Amino acid sequence: MEYLFFQQSMWYLCCSCPEDPPIGFTINNVRPRMTKVIKFADVKVGDVVLVNYNIESPKERGYWYDMVVTKVGQKRTQRELVGTIFVGSQRTHLDDCKIVFVDELMQIEFPKNLSERSKADDVAMTTESDRRSKAPFTVMILYPHF
After folding, report:
1. What are residue 43's DSSP bridge partners?
2. Class of 37-107 in CATH
3. Which of 25, 72, 106, 112 supports an S-S bond with 50, CB 3.0-4.6 Å?
């Protein structure tokens, strides 16, 4: 079981494993949950998107990373998306990464102050989502964003 608690301007994520110490972070290290899927046809060179990539096995599902798109291509039945991926809090870049899961591109969303939120934002945050037998993907990033 995991839980969050707040102490002295830091949030801490804890789990029930006694050998794992709590992980401390500030609210600036947490992004909003990404909810907007981008269609492959709408992606252009220079766009910054959130992609699923596996550093060790690029053809398998991995973690979610920011990526600057450097190449978009489509042949008859094959779509190609290549870009520079940024890894970790140090934003180490990996060039020429080919993305396998081109139907799961997410728009990067930024935090909004309470005064900037619309009624639609409030409804989206308070509406319970439909239960699925298997969710397609969930995104939570614990490092600074662009």
Report:
1. none
2. mainly beta
3. 106
